[in-house]
Protein NrdI (Vreelandella salicampi), 129 residues
Amino acid sequence: MTQIVYFSTKSGNTRRLVEKLQRDAKRIPFESGEPLPVTTEPYVLIFPTYGGGEVKGAVPKPVIHFLNDERNRRHLRGVVGAGNTNFGTAYCLGAHIVARKCQVPLLHCFELLGTPEDVAILHQELDRV
């Protein structure tokens, strides 16, 4: 079963969606002083877009630091983005950037803390990966 690695802000929206999935998950810490997880098996990365619609800053710094470790990039199998459709074309921009840069599929995007339909789609995508 594909593992989940996720980053969630203090609002906890992404964390709440991950909890609804009821799957093995590791959290990338919000605070920079905490150690970053290291993956040893295939995983899907879930995180929200930052930056208020700007390309610069769209990928949260903790996610960048996590992916700077080659061991973590090696096991990445797909990306799921969280965002807000109010940002228009920048909706889930961070996930698009990571998927393109790491050459993995963008599996799904969801708004805020997701819907039951998002959870069903993610179960299908996680099973497929």
